[in-house]
Write a structure and sequence with these properties.
- By secondary structure, the protein is an alpha+beta fold.
- The chain folds into 2 domains: 4-102, Peroxidase, domain 1 (Orthogonal Bundle); 106-175, no CATH class.
- The protein is 63% helix and 16% strand.
- It has a 4-stranded mixed β-sheet.
- Helix 7 (119-133) links the parallel strand 1 and strand 2.
- Helix 2 packs antiparallel against helix 6.
- The protein is elongated.
Length: 176
């Protein structure tokens, strides 16, 4: 769930990149994702760039040495430093990704099965979801043997549980 803060920054970055074209959008997404990964792997960096005792200019200079100063993502980081919002970077990256998916008319779908689906099953599921949602579907597959069989499909706020485990649990509930 995104916050209002992350949404505002993600929208602003998306608008700026969109004005420059699709290549700039892809570049901003890639750069932002790389920055978010770097911050998540180095929590001390987030703390350093958020230190109120260190002047903003010094924190910005540290960021400039790490990220350069040409990309939209690096300029966003400078702005986050200036406004004391560095800890929101991961949320902003996630929000930006959501806007990109909407812009590309694409939906991420998480599919959980007890055993791996073969390519034909994946393609049939992708086609069915694409027809239902009127979007391009990106499937991320998870294997969970505890569901025994069937499938669980998650996208957005929707969860479709057609697993054997779910059906057995529902039957058990009805019988008790």
């Amino acid at each position: 769930m995104s916050s209002e803060v992350s949404s505002v920054y993600a929208n602003a970055l998306f608008s700026l990149a969109k004005e420059k074209g699709d290549a700039a959008l892809q570049e901003a997404r890639s750069d932002l994702r790389q920055c978010a990964v770097l911050f998540s792997l180095n929590p001390d960096l987030t703390r350093l760039l958020s230190l109120p005792t260190l002047p903003v200019m010094e924190r910005t200079e540290i960021a400039r040495k790490i990220f350069g100063d040409q990309s939209l993502a690096s300029r966003l980081i400078f702005l986050l430093i200036d406004h004391g919002r560095v800890p929101f970077l991961q949320e902003i990256a996630d929000d930006f990704d959501e806007r990109m998916l909407d812009y590309q008319d694409t939906t991420d779908v998480i599919v959980t099965t007890a055993v791996a689906m073969n390519p034909e099953q994946k393609e049939r599921l992708r086609d069915a979801l694409s027809r239902k949602l009127h979007k391009t579907i990106r499937i991320t597959e998870h294997i969970d043997r505890s569901i025994l069989g069937g499938v669980i499909v998650k996208y957005g706020d929707t969860r479709i549980d057609n697993s054997v485990k779910y059906r057995l649990d529902a039957l058990r509930e009805q019988l008790s």
